[in-house]
Amino acid sequence: MRSLLAALLPALLLAGCASTTEITTRYTSEDDFPSQNKLLLVAHTPEGSVRETWELTCRDIFSSDSLTVLLSHQELPLWYEGGKQRILRWAQEAGVDRILVVELTHLLIDATEPPQPVNQLNAMNQPPGSPPPTWEVGIGGDLKKADIPEALRQHGAELINAQGSPIWTGVAMTHEANNMAMIAKSQCQALRKTLREQGYL
Fold first, then answer.
1. I need a surface site. Which of 1, 4, 5, 83 has the fewest CB within 10 A?
2. Contact yes or no for 172/187 (Cβ under 8 A)
């Protein structure tokens, strides 16, 4: 029995680390781009905490001995005031070869909420002087989180060069639900795999 567990443990660990994000490629450039050694990660969202969490989580996934990863929330804290042109100007001045932008503007993390009260007659909820109820009715009962289908999150992603020319564009579809760091990890593992396979990283 122990030998069976020992054999299965590595497979279970690998399965636990697998990305739950699927990448659909929409566009790949046919132009040749020089090899790159600097990548700027941009989480496109006005939510500062989402932006910071996504970029910090993804830095470790994309970093390698041959690739320096920079984060927009550190390098350009208020980049959105100048729009895309401000990012491109900064990238050209800093010698950044590639910019990976992921659209997270509409990302909503579902907070864990207590169940909503069902329609019921309850002596504790009745105004003083009311006759005590003789029955309790729950319409449909509580809807548990597990009963709600998990929404598929779709986020546009694009890899551009410092001049703003698109190199690759696609959509990241992830099944992670309520944890921003897990969403970021899943997305960036899948994005790195796709971009490496296509020779862009």
1. 1
2. yes
Q: What is residue 57's predicted lDDT score, i.e. its pLDDT?
A: 97
For residue 101, the one-letter residue type is V
- Beta-sheet strand order (sheet of 21-28): 21-28, 166-174, 153-161, 98-103, 38-44, 68-71
What is the value of pTM for the model shown? 0.69
Q: Which residues of 95-128 are buried (b: 16+ CB within 10 A; e: fewer)?
A: ebbbbbbbbbeebeeeeeeeeeeeeeeeeeeeee
Residues 6+ apart with CB under 8 A from 31: 165
User: What are 88's two structure tokens?
Assistant: 């491109």
Average pLDDT along the chain, 201 residues, taken 10 residues at a time: 44 47 91 81 90 96 92 85 84 93 74 40 50 41 41 82 94 79 92 92 82
Q: So what's the pLDDT on residue 121?
A: 42
Q: CA 10: distance to chain centroid?
A: 26
> Among 153, 192, 199, which residue's Cα sits nearest to residue 61?
192
User: CA dist 151 to 145, 154, 173, 183, Å?
Assistant: 12, 9, 10, 13
Beta strands in the chain (DSSP E): 21-28, 38-44, 68-71, 98-103, 153-161, 166-174
- Residue 55's Cβ-side half-sphere holds a number of Cα atoms within 13 Å equal to 26
